[in-house]
Design brief:
This protein is an alpha/beta fold and 245 residues long. It is built from eight helices and eight strands; from the N terminus they run βαββααβαβαβαββαα. The protein has a single domain, classed as 3-Layer(aba) Sandwich (Rossmann fold), CATH 3.40.50.300. An eight-stranded mixed β-sheet has the order 3-2-4-5-1-6-7-8, with helices on both faces. The protein binds adenosine-5'-diphosphate (ADP) and magnesium ion.
């Protein structure tokens, strides 16, 4: 999924809604949430507490996340081939083994460009978005800069759905959605066009940090995977209901 719109358009709030929904609809062993927050000094994802399998904020660590996911993709593809299965669903039905669904959720994706890692990130993203969703590894990219330099044609073609908030003009709408229209959305925070084949105008539900912490307070911590120790730091600061970091 691509989430695009101007600063303060509502992108991070939508990500928070999506993350909360994913956590409420999957058990801790059934989901791997990888947070990549490229906004400097951002606390947005940390507010969730120890739900992250991995949480990173540097382009170099983002490259590790991508490479680890590609490695996992290849492993999954290999297992499917060995079992003679064409899809994850078929594999899971045949073997009774379920792959955890992995979600790589990136806020301010555009900011990873301009770093020395940008080529590695772009190439890796291409590979990942080409095969990932079919093997249970999903990518959600939020960015203010959805131009071709940041989201190249191949990545773009692989992103199955787009959420576009109100933009300044028809040209920007065309870059994001392929046509004009998002510039005429009413000036209501959280109002956006959701495009996944068909298009719908939607209102993103607002979720405060307090609410998401209350909803997730009884959740078991995720198991850290990438060995960067990040999640442990977060766990040590784990939240009490209503507490603000
Ligand atoms: N769906 C929404 N409903 C109500 N207010 C919202 C909504 N989305 C965003 N806002 C308001 O706009 C502010 C900026 O939203 P944010 O998601 O941080 O923007 P972005 O990440 O696109 O810069 C939020 O702090 C909130 O006050
Ligand atoms: Mg934001």
């Amino acid at each position: 999924m691509l989430i695009a719109g101007p600063t303060r358009g509502g992108k991070t709030v939508l990500l928070k809604s999506i993350i909360t929904t994913l956590l409420l609809s999957h058990s801790a062993t059934d989901i791997e949430l990888i947070g990549v927050d490229m906004k400097p000094q951002s606390l947005a994802f940390r507010k969730f507490g120890p739900v992250w399998t991995s949480l990173v904020d540097r382009p170099e660590a983002f490259v590790d996340v991508i490479q680890d996911a590609i490695f996992e993709l290849e492993k999954r593809a290999d297992k499917l081939a060995k079992a003679g299965c064409e899809s994850v669903q078929e594999y899971e039905e045949t073997t009774g083994h379920r792959f955890p669904r992995r979600f790589i959720i990136v806020d301010e994706y555009g900011r990873s460009f301009g770093s020395p890692c940008e080529d590695e990130i772009a190439t890796g993203m291409m590979q990942l978005t080409a095969m990932g969703a079919g093997l249970g590894i999903h990518v959600i990219l939020a960015t203010q800069r959805p131009d071709a330099e940041i989201i190249n044609g191949k990545i773009r073609a692989n992103l199955e759905s787009v959420v576009c908030f109100r933009v300044a003009n028809g040209v920007q709408s065309r870059v994001i959605l392929g046509h004009e229209g998002a510039e005429t959305l009413p000036k209501i925070r959280g109002r956006a066009i959701y495009s996944a084949g068909d298009e719908t105008v939607l209102q993103v539900p607002y979720i405060s940090d307090k609410t998401l912490q209350r909803l997730l307070s009884s959740r078991r911590p995720a198991r850290g995977k990438h060995g960067n120790g990040e999640w442990k730091t977060i766990q040590a600061r784990s939240l009490r209901v209503g507490e603000d970091l």
